[in-house]
Amino acid sequence: MVSKHLFLIFILLSNIAQSQKEDRYSIRTIAFYNVENLFDTVNDSLYFDDEMTPEGNYNWTLDRYRLKITHIAEVLSKIGKSTTRTCPDIIGLCEVENLKVIEDLVKHPFLRPYDYNIIHYDSPDERGIDVALIYKGSRFIPMSFKSHRLLIFNDSDERDYTRDQLLVGGLLEGEELYIIVNHWPSRSGGAARSRPYRKAAARLNRRIIDSLMRLNIDAKIISMGDFNDNPTDNSIKNTLILSDKENAKSPAFFNPMEALYNKGDGSLAYRDQWSLFDQILLSRNLINENRNSYTFWKAGIYHPSFLRNKTGKYKGYPFRTHVAGRYTGGYSDHFPVYAFLIKKAE
User: Fold this and answer.
1) Which helix H or strand E contains 15, and what residues bound it?
2) Selection from 167, 166, 334, 337 nearest residue 256 by Cα
3) 174-202 pLDDT, tens per residue?
4) Is residue 298 classed exposed, middle or buried when 0-12, 13-18 and 19+ CB atoms within 10 A define those classes?
5) Adjacent-strand bridge partners of 278
6) How far apart are CA 32 and CA 206, in angstroms?
7) Nearest of 334, 339, 341, 267 to residue 72 by alpha carbon
8) Which of 257, 250, 185, 269 is nearest to 223 (CA)?
9) Angle at CA 82, nearest 5°, toward 331 and 136?
10) What does the alpha-carbon distance between residue 291 and residue 326 come to, in Å, rounded to a whole number?
């Protein structure tokens, strides 16, 4: 009888061990963060950055700059950490002024141990803000990168200088992956009046995606950024995701942020209304139950309590650096967003 019980216990433990072995996965985090005016303190004569200097309207001192770097580095070091025990493997950024501020960011003690590398181009944006990509060199190897210029013109047929779209192609632990980092034109002047600019940004994004798919129909692509539109807006829902009516039943792209938005979640707030401008979109071949290669698992908005205002008129809103021109010493006016890619561990 004893030997029979021991045999049953052995079978039970074997089954548990086998189950645990089958449930082991590698998880990689892709994140995006609009860092709200990450400027250095130096006046650049080529851009309208005078406000973000010690003598400017925002009284942007070296101490304030250093605190901002610390705040952003702290946030990036914690995204996804409760699940993966580490910080994101690939991060898209927007509202960074130049290469120097990104270098200061990745050298901060919160991020230095992870050996982040940088891909950045100067955009023609009038304020001098750019998009960029940082990545762990141990996880991702870039093979190609290019900055795609967005040409838009105002009602007077004058060019409106805005951010480029950054395309990076590389290998995520041996698997080919393309990433587009976006910061589409703002809603300045009103959402309706500025809508054509974001439609133009969506068309450029779609042209980049289509060119990649012409070269490789199975290309895995992630388009992420601050789109200044919600997941249900026409620029995202139709122009970017559905390039034509024939693809309506099986769109080439999937937007996991739409479900979050439909639940009322958002990454920024204005007049007590939440918007989800910050999004991570994925090509359909990243949505696959086969976990033998990296596929999408889930997405989310990172909004712990320390990133929120705790009191006052804007309680619950993102704890930002400036409010109505007044320095508040916070983090950003946006929450970061993230997506997990997962595959079976070898």
Assistant:
1) helix 2-22
2) 337
3) 999 999 999 999 998 889 999 999 999 99
4) exposed
5) 226
6) 19
7) 334
8) 257
9) 75
10) 49
d(CA 60, CA 57): 8
The partner residues of 29 in beta bridges, in order of sequence, read: 340
Q: What are phi and psi of 269, to 5 degrees?
A: -130, 145
Long-range contacts of 174-179 (CB under 8 A, 24+ apart): 175/220, 175/293, 175/294, 176/216, 176/219, 176/220, 177/140, 177/220, 177/221, 177/222, 177/294, 178/212, 178/219, 178/220, 178/221, 178/222, 179/30, 179/90, 179/92, 179/133, 179/221, 179/222, 179/223, 179/224
pTM, two decimal places: 0.91
Q: Following CA atoms 309, 58, 32, 311 in sequence, which dihedral angle do they give, to the nearest 10 degrees? A: 0
Q: What is the DSSP string of 227-286?
A: -SS-TTSHIIIIIIT-SSGGGSSS-SEE-THHHHHHTT--SEEETTEEE--EEEEEEGGG
- Alpha-carbon distances, residue 307 vs 67, 104, 207, 335 (angstroms): 14, 21, 36, 8
pLDDT tens by residue, 232-281: 999 999 999 975 444 545 567 999 999 999 999 999 999 889 999 999 99
Burial of 4 (0-12, 13-18, 19+ CB in 10 A): exposed
In which residue are the tokens 């609009």 written? 34
Closest alpha carbon to 114 in 86, 79, 142, 72:
86
CA distance 293 to 295: 6
Q: Which two tokens stand for residue 337?
A: 């967003």
